[in-house]
Please model this.
Amino acid sequence: MSPVGEGAQPQIVLPQGRGVVHRTCDPATHYIHEGVPVAFPDKPGSWARWDWAAKAWIDPRTQADHEAEVAAAWAGLRAERDARLRACDWTQSPDVPITAERRAAWAAYRQALRDMTDTTADPAAPAWPDPPNL
Model:
């Protein structure tokens, strides 16, 4: 015979001040606050960590971490810019048979590439100029 009895629900004895929560939401998208499911706010970046006390995403990175990320982003931008410039070096050679109009369009594109470090606010999301389509 069952110690609880036929058809009865088992009783769970919990310490004082403790309770059971039956979650009806996805723990990856919600947390429980005062017994109510609350959606996590959008995560601002892969670096973010959830602070349970503040109920908010926090940035655990140090100033040095941030500066290193920015420096790496600028280095990546410069490397990509240099590769794009090398890919169209041929357009500026005087013996290449292209029209003056095309040569000028390529020269303007190349100048826009060289100006990227002065005209870009966020090196992690640069707005690259389009090459001439002549």
